Amino acid sequence: MTDTQHIDGFILTPSGFLRGVLVHQAGRITRIDGHAVSEFEVRHGGEDLPIVLPGFIDLHVHGGAGRDTMEGEGAADAIARLHVRHGTTALLATTMTAPLEEIRGALRDLADPCRQRPAGAARVLGVHLEGPYINPGKLGAQPDFAKVATLDEIRDLHAIAPIRLITLAPELPGNLELVTQLREAGFQVQIGHTLGTYEDGVAALGRGAGGFTHLFNAMTGLHHREPGMVGAALAHAQYAEVIPDLLHVHPGAIRVALRSIPCLFCVTDSTAAAGMPDGEYSLGRHRVTKCMGGVRLPDGTLAGSTLTMDQALRNLVLKLGLPIEDASRRVSTHAADYLGLDDRGRLAPGAWADLVVLDRGLLLQRVVVEGEAIDLANAG
């Protein structure tokens, strides 16, 4: 797109809300003009103008629209088209623990979407490798194919499709040393699916691990004499994921994390069931059931979610009481910063024209990805 486009409204810039106009051309924001306004005026003032926020960034996406990243055959495009219609303008396609050849097959299917964004879809920034380098005693909903990690193996996978984020359990033999090697090789590392202690978590952070995968879930919990991996995160982390569907984590626990972790950011951990009716769906090798707002294995274990990022924003603001500006950072800016992306997750001249337009009820009215206006008519 090369035509100049203008969007009027309450625009959230890095310095706060402006009442004004945002201009974008050729996929980039070229100008933002206006005067500063308070968030109270945005939400309760006399002018009923749309609210313009940075597009959402989701670093943990397994599926959507009935498709799963592990199945290949164009699944990534369908998933990216479902989530963009809920305001996600960029995402990491997330794999499951599986035999290595299945992971390779999924990555081969992800290579093209990572290179070229299809029209009408979110940008696939790369891959989040969630396993197989996790603790077999803390699989959660991951299939039982955990294995020992090596840097050479991860580099071979990365040669198929760009891996941006790796979840591993630091307490497993060799993994602590691997954290340092991965960071030196340019990979971001998260701690997750772990039976590690508080001390294991602190050691991994000291080696360069950047954050925690779906905080509170699939990790050792907080006890006052054994702080566990949750305690390491709350005491020391700058970044961590959290799933704010209000099912995976109690609102009170989210509030604890918000007070403790400066750049806590939201992910959906969404499955093929996102945007779909109740029923059975795939999650890697598992069959999962969507019902009563959740997704579970036959034994009742939570298995990802049906959350979308627009609902995550509404949960933060309308259920947890966060200001829109703070909530926006947690569904967009912090994730971009975590991956080292200074041209996404913010509305500023020179940044990608990735944005969402919402009404005062925080319902989506418009989504723009790299300057392309997305058709919301068929939103899931």
Q: Return Rg in Å.
A: 20 Å
Spans where pLDDT lies below 50 across 5 or more residues: none
CATH class of the largest domain: Alpha Beta
- Alpha carbon gap, first and last residue: 25 Å
- Which structural class matches the secondary elements? alpha/beta
Helix content: 25-40%
Number of helical stretches of at least 4 residues = 10
Strand order of the largest sheet: 3-2-1-4-18-19-20
CATH topology of the largest domain: TIM Barrel
What would you give as the CATH superfamily of the largest domain?
Metal-dependent hydrolases
Mean pLDDT: 95
The SSE order reads EEEHEEEEHEHEHEHEHEHEHEEEEHHEEE
InterPro entries: Amidohydro-rel, GlcNAc_6-P_deAcase, Metal-dep_hydrolase_composite, Metal_Hydrolase
GO molecular function, one term: N-acetylglucosamine-6-phosphate deacetylase activity
EC number: 3.5.1.25
Family: Belongs to the metallo-dependent hydrolases superfamily. NagA family.
Question: If you had to describe this structure to a student in words, what would you say it looks like?
Answer:
The chain is an alpha/beta fold and 380 residues long. It has 2 domains: 76 residues, Urease, subunit C, domain 1, CATH 2.30.40.10; 284 residues, Metal-dependent hydrolases (TIM Barrel), CATH 3.20.20. It is 28% helix and 27% strand. The chain has 10 helices and 20 strands. The strands form 5 sheets. A 7-stranded mixed β-sheet has the order 3-2-1-4-18-19-20, with helices on one face. The protein has a 6-stranded parallel β-sheet with strand order 5-8-9-10-11-12. Helix 5 runs parallel beside helix 6, helix 6 packs across helix 7 and helix 9 packs across helix 10. The longest helix has 16 residues. The radius of gyration is 20 Å and the shape is globular. The model has no long low-confidence stretch (mean pLDDT 95). Belongs to the metallo-dependent hydrolases superfamily. NagA family. This is N-acetylglucosamine-6-phosphate deacetylase. GO terms for molecular function: N-acetylglucosamine-6-phosphate deacetylase activity. It is an enzyme of class 3 (hydrolase). Its EC number is 3.5.1.25.
